[in-house]
Amino acid sequence: MRLGAGISSAALVVAVGAATPALAQAGSQDAQLQELRAQIQLLQRRIDQLEAAYKARQQSTDQAARDAAARARAAQDQAARAQARADAAQAKVQELEAANQQRPAGAPGLVYPPLPPGASPEPVGGPPKPKSDKPNGSFDLGGVTFTLGGFIELAGYFRSNNQNRSIASSFNTIPFLGPTPQGDIGEFGLTAQQSRFSGKAEGMIDDGLRVVGYGELDLLNGAGSANSVETNSYTPRLRQIFTQLEYEPWQAYGLAGQAWSLATPFRKGLDPFATWQPPVIDAQYIVGYDFLRVPALRVVKGFGDVWVGFEAATPQTAFGGVSNPPPPGTTIFTTYPGGGGLNPQANYSVNVAPDLLLKVAADTKPLEDVTAHFEAFGLARWFTDQISFGGQSANLTTFGGGIGGSTYVTLGKWFDIEASVLYGNGIGRYGAAQLPDVTFNANGSLQTLNEGMGTVGGVLHAIPGKLDLYGFYGWDWIGNSYYAGGGGYGNPANSNMGCFNPNAQAQGLGATCTGNTQWVNEITAGLNWNVFRGRFGTWRTGFQYSHIARQAYAGVGGSPWAADDMFMFNFRYLPFE
Fold first, then answer.
1. Per 3-state DSSP, what percentage of the chain is helix, strand, and coil (rounded to 5)?
2. Residue numbers of the chain with a pLDDT score lower than 70
3. CATH topology of domain 101-223+234-574
């Protein structure tokens, strides 16, 4: 007889023993055997039932265990994949936060790419940001995505030479020792004028076709009623405002409006949101930095990692030097007062053609943790004045231009290197020192001035995403052009007698100080520290020291020279970075 698992022989013995009294009462042995066999059959059926029930329970338990084990393995696999995505997202966030320290302050904030499902990055120095593929300050309205940007700043400055300016220095007019006391007395001030407000709107017109609009304002403007006596009521100033059409399948875009000029160094491609500005406090940046922010039309085409851009920008001429009095009856027209929406207190040059720029840029990655951006460009300009004599007039146009280039290299997450150069004739407008473009010839026509400028330096991300240290050197040199009688620029016959006496103007003795600049250079160093950073934005403080030297061309009385030591600090709240 077969016994089911879990039913012992002892149990059968007990059952048989229980049947013995019934056998004793039977009338015959056959009846007893028949009775016993019937009971055994009943017991066997009971054993079979118990065995079947046990097997069913065992199978159910085994299946449940297998299901539980499978669920546990699946959960472990999902957890591992989620952790891998989170690690990758965290690395990307740290990379973007480190790179964000080099972008122009006040752009619409750090743009995070779409995150992998389940990833929750935690930026350096703060709690996790909300799970979103949009940066801080972004929201959708209809089919348009809006992104707010900017910062609130208090800045302070001390200069050893009194420029009587706000946070934007004037490198070309650093006061000499005379003829006024400005070169012999310092200045201190606090200002909130560099606070910035920006907004970006973008939407898809069609598959691959995107439209972008961007605007940016600060308060570095002084209206006729502005003063610092009581209310410091300074007015908004237009920095950038442009629209852009991007067609991604072609790697192409067109831009119309006021933006950083194509001559400005870029960090990547020719993206108008990836220009490079020195990370300094001074709103005029550093000597040798070439840039404009003017209305322009631009087209850019990409070919993989190579980009080609062309721009036509609104022209304007910076004049320098003097023109001797023309012959009797002769008039020279170079500028006219502004009107019809222009500043009536400013003079605007005669412009007959736009400034034209052509730039080629390339992005490379020579090593695993090294990226490099290189670019070169050419510039063409036209300068015009009008000479009237004896009832007749002549419009005289002079051609100018130059060539330039820059590079921007990142060494892992620790160091960035930047260098730029621009050389040519009539390029002064494009430099931060604002040296002149042209001077005058003896016949009253315009003469372009030879000039070269450049910058070199770097940023050390001492604590990536938290603390940056920087240092730069910049220079700007300009040639002279003159003719007999004291005309032109840098003429040795010009008087510099008043450049060396702080009281010359008050005393009325030798008060003339022509002081045409020959060169300006600057050494600057500083830091930017993100004290607090998180979903609330960034609270940052910074410090900058600059030593700026200015040398003038020699004239009667000597060659004046001046140096300005400047200390600046700031506190910024960037709610969208």
1. 20, 45, 35
2. 1-29, 82, 89, 92-133, 323-328, 504-510
3. Porin (2.40.160)
